């Protein structure tokens, strides 16, 4: 091998080699700059008021059960089925969800039916998301709403027309870093008027949205003297999402459980009006 001939060969290949190196360096530099820009944009992009409302609406939607809690403490909690799905959008962008609750053994016989209206809190309020519950004008017409094919449900225009009496409003705030929840809040301290049973004059509700679409809800009724007359006392109901099922399509991001049964059920409602 002759050093001279090796030197000649190297000198002929240098331009191409240097050109390729420069081109590759330029490509890598561009990729780094683009990636950095995207990362900065992602880190600095703020979550809007409507983003918060959308997240809460999605979390409230779906099929959930209080099975684990009922197994742990069957004397105080039932295995309830929570079922909610998008029903309509209001002109101002508020999301209307249909909600029903039933015993897990009889899912098609709900004992509670409501509309949820989810929207950002007004700017003057110190909260992020407002969740209000409303009665349904003709609840029987909406029974098993989420279980039906879409073409067999009341149309959004009908849904809006069937929103009846306002029952409660809960103001949710983003949870502090390190907590299990994403959002939590309650009704005002004095609650809302309620004369549903046992001499109650008002009721309060607490709601927490956790990761993985888990929902905790705690509802209690009080008489004129401030005594709790209905609702569980040990803590909120804990609703965890059901395994993947036929409901998945319906709950994509929005475009959207010793005493007689009749007595036991009185204190176990969720988001009680």
TrEMBL record:
The family database entries (InterPro entries) matched by this protein are listed as:
CpcT/CpeT, CpcT/CpeT_sf
Instruction: Return the annotated region ranges for Disordered.
Output: 1-20
The protein's UniProt keywords, in alphabetical order, are: Lyase
Offer one Pfam family short name for this entry. CpeT
Alphabetized GO MF terms = lyase activity
Provide one Gene Ontology cellular component.
chloroplast outer membrane
Has UniProt tagged this entry with the keyword Lyase?
yes
- What top-level branch of life does the organism fall under? Eukaryota
**Which family does the entry's similarity section mention?**
Belongs to the CpcT/CpeT biliprotein lyase family.
- PANTHER family membership: CHROMOPHORE LYASE CRL, CHLOROPLASTIC
Name of this protein: Chromophore lyase CRL, chloroplastic isoform X1
Species for this entry: Nicotiana tabacum (Common tobacco)
């Amino acid at each position: 091998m002759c050093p001279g001939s090796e030197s000649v060969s190297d000198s002929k290949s240098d331009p191409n080699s240097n050109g390729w190196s420069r081109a590759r360096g330029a490509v890598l530099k561009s990729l780094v700059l683009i990636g950095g820009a995207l990362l900065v944009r992602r880190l600095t992009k703020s979550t809007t008021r409507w983003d918060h409302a959308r997240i809460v609406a999605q979390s409230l939607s779906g099929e959930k059960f209080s099975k684990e809690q009922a197994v742990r403490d069957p004397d105080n909690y039932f295995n309830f089925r929570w079922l909610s799905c998008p029903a309509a959008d209001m002109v101002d962008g508020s999301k209307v969800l249909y909600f029903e609750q039933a015993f897990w053994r009889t899912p098609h016989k709900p004992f509670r039916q409501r509309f949820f209206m989810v929207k950002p809190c007004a700017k003057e309020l110190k909260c992020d998301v407002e969740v209000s519950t409303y009665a349904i004008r003709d609840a029987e017409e909406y029974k098993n709403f989420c279980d039906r094919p879409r073409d067999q449900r009341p149309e959004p225009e009908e849904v809006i027309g069937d929103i009846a009496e306002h029952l409660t409003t809960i103001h949710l705030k983003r949870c502090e870093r390190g907590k299990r929840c994403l959002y939590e809040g309650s009704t005002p301290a004095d609650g809302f008027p309620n004369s549903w049973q046992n001499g109650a004059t008002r009721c309060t509700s607490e709601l927490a949205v956790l990761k993985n679409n888990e929902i905790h809800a705690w509802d209690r009724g009080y008489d004129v003297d401030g005594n709790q007359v209905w609702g569980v006392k040990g803590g909120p109901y804990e609703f965890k999402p059901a395994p993947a099922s036929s409901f998945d399509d319906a709950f994509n991001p929005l475009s959207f459980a010793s005493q007689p049964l009749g007595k036991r059920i009185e204190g176990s409602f969720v988001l009680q009006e």
